[in-house]
Design a protein that fits this description.
With 82 residues, this protein is of the alpha+beta class. It is built from 3 helices and 4 strands, in the order αββαββα. It is 29% helix and 15% strand. The protein has one domain: Aldehyde Dehydrogenase, Chain A, domain 2. The strands form 2 sheets. Strands 1-4 form a two-stranded antiparallel ribbon. The protein has a two-stranded parallel sheet with strand order 2-3.
């Protein structure tokens, strides 16, 4: 948990990590939710919740947290040979 004063600073700090599986954002501000969801360079971004995945939802990260997605019909294509 990292409190912050400047939104751009916290986005830069979060994106500067070599990992990118999931980022969590807690805010009641709808505009901030949308901005942070777009700005964070992570495979998944959770807004005001901790559970963000399930059987029909693609799961995956970016950077050193992996490439590609698992789950859903899109993620299954990586395991399929036609």
């Amino acid at each position: 948990v990292t409190p912050f004063d400047d939104e751009a600073e916290v986005v830069a700090r979060a994106n500067a990590t070599e990992y990118g599986l999931v980022a969590y954002v807690v805010t009641e501000n709808g505009a901030r939710q949308a901005r942070m969801g777009r700005a964070l360079d992570h495979g998944m971004v959770a807004i005001n919740r901790v559970k963000i995945t399930g059987a029909p939802i693609p799961f995956g990260g970016v950077k050193q947290s992996g490439i590609g997605r698992e789950g859903s019909r899109h993620g299954l294509e990586a395991f399929t040979d036609l």
